[in-house]
Amino acid sequence: MSTAILAREILEILDRMDKHSILSKRNFLLKGEDRLLAMLNEIGGISSPSKLSEYTDFTPARLSAIIKSLENKGYIVRQQDELDKRCSIIEITEKGAEYSGQLKTAAVRNSLEIIDKLGEKDSEEFLRLMKKLFVIMEKEERRGE
User: Are 78 and 90 in contact (CB under 8 A)?
Assistant: First the structure.
């Protein structure tokens, strides 16, 4: 099979996976609000918006919209930084931590389901290839800086 055909098929399957797969339908890969909440929970439940932006690569506008939505849902609270009144601190609430824990449990459950469906050998090969792809992507990113 030619590399042009391989490239086309890879793009096609990635597009189809994004629309129909267990990966996107069941919070396997967290996006938007869920991703920010999970990240905040992972780093100890408290952070500044600028640090959260670094961790997630969200634009300031996207981050601001997500923070406002999470705040409206009662998952986080925003407070003024005591040391620098120009900055705010974002802290996860008990409700937010509980929801984040549920997301993590669902993600683990979905990962196990995928492993069960793929089988151990194919799951190990999939993981090996994903790690290899990640290394390639990191090198490309560093080269572009």
Answer: yes
Q: How many domains does the chain have?
A: 1
Q: What range does the domain containing 123 cover?
A: 3-144
pTM above 0.85, yes or no: no
Closest CA to 74 of 37, 30, 35, 28: 37
Asked whether the beta carbons of 9 and 15 are under 8 A apart, the reply is: no
pLDDT at 102: 92
86: tokens are 């120009």
Kindly calculate the radius of gyration of the chain based on its CA atoms and give it in whole angstroms: 19
98: domain CATH number? 1.10.10.10
* pLDDT per position as a tens digit, 28-74: 455 789 889 988 988 999 998 888 888 888 888 999 999 999 999 99
Element (H, E) at 113: helix 94-118
